Amino acid sequence: MKTSVLVLGAGFGGLELSTLLSETFGDEVDVTLIDKSAHFIFGFSKLDVMFSLKTPDAVRLPYRNFVKPGVRFRQETITGIDPDARRVTTDTGSYEADFLVVALGADYDLDATPGLAAGNEFYSEGGAEGLRARVHDFSKGRAVIGVSAAPYKCPPAPSECALMLHDHLTKKGVRGRCEITLVLPFGSPVPPSPETSKALVSAFSERSIEFIPSRRVASLDPGRRLAVLDDGSELPYDLYLGVPRHRAPHVVEDSGMAENGWVPVNPKTLETQFPGVYAIGDIANTGTPKAGVFAEAAARAVADSLTARIRGSEQPGFYTGAGSCYIEFGDGKIGRVDVDFFSGPSPTGTYHEPSVQLRSEKEHFGSSRRARWFGL
């Protein structure tokens, strides 16, 4: 009888894990990949959509194009997870597997920040698309980019948003009539890399972007157009671009897998406290950032673990906790930070200055995965 693997969530982690298992085993292993959406988009594409650099349709990659030997994709909504039995129920049926991998990512808790649900966040696909017209029409006043809580996906993204907004307003010829304020819950934009943070703070200063560190946006008053920070201070705004509080999906919390909001795992193998059940990506409490490149690295570690267990061999590698993030600095240039969370006594980050060459590298990052996962 074939070994069965059930993968919940078709983001970076789920797509890469399913691809690796297909490459290793082909039809010898049954892999079922479940996601409620009909398509995948890269996280950085949401900024492209919001700033009208790309259309929503242009960034959507349909899961119907994800075709791999031994893998079947199911577009279904997961309604229950039993990690003890490795059983999953959906809105159309139920599944059981020898191995279960939870890669459902993080959901957005808009209600945790009063006022944010009124179309003021750019982290969801619908939110970014909904703000597209507001960003286009904004030509005077103050724009506030605010983060409601940590942790959040792609830590550099709010900084990128501020720099891209500066470019957007400059091209429109209205930058002199606009103010930009960035509010972050961290003391620096990229805490593991002081050099990267210094470069971003310098870029903010050069572009007259106000940076408010170590603060979070606690609530919004859309009627009065005020953002209230966690220290009680208020920021008036004419355009608000928000990062919502993140949380584990309700179905994961209800399963009993989550502790303190996220799923604890063995940091080397990504296995949970439930035998044969793994968690990767944003849902897992790995000690690394919630970003696609880290979910992808986690998928490689789980693929190694599953391959070893299926074949009865030693696991050849473990989760490294290392990855690279590209950062939009504006003016057509992109920087990169290589971060390593596990090799030393504390996380480290290596900064690469913004360049046009790194833009080509980022484009290759996206195109290579489109080709690998979707054949496009």
Description:
- The chain has 376 residues and is α/β, with parallel strands linked by helices.
- The protein has two domains: 3-106 and 248-311, 3-Layer(bba) Sandwich (FAD/NAD(P)-binding domain), CATH 3.50.50; 110-246, FAD/NAD(P)-binding domain.
- It has helices at 12-25, 45-50, 56-59, 125-137, 157-172, 194-206, 250-255, 292-311, 356-374, and strands spanning 3-8, 29-35, 39-40, 61-62, 71-75, 78-82, 87-90, 94-96, 99-102, 107-109, 141-147, 178-183, 209-212, 217-221, 226-229, 234-236, 239-243, 245-247, 263-264, 277-279, 284-285, 322-330, 333-340, 348-355.
- Strands 5-2-1-9-20 form a five-stranded parallel sheet, with helices on one face. It has a four-stranded parallel sheet with strand order 13-12-11-17. A three-stranded antiparallel sheet has the order 6-7-8.
- Helix 5 (157-172) links the parallel strand 11 (141-147) and strand 12 (178-183).
Q: How would you sum up this structure in a few lines?
A:
This protein has 376 residues and is an alpha/beta fold.
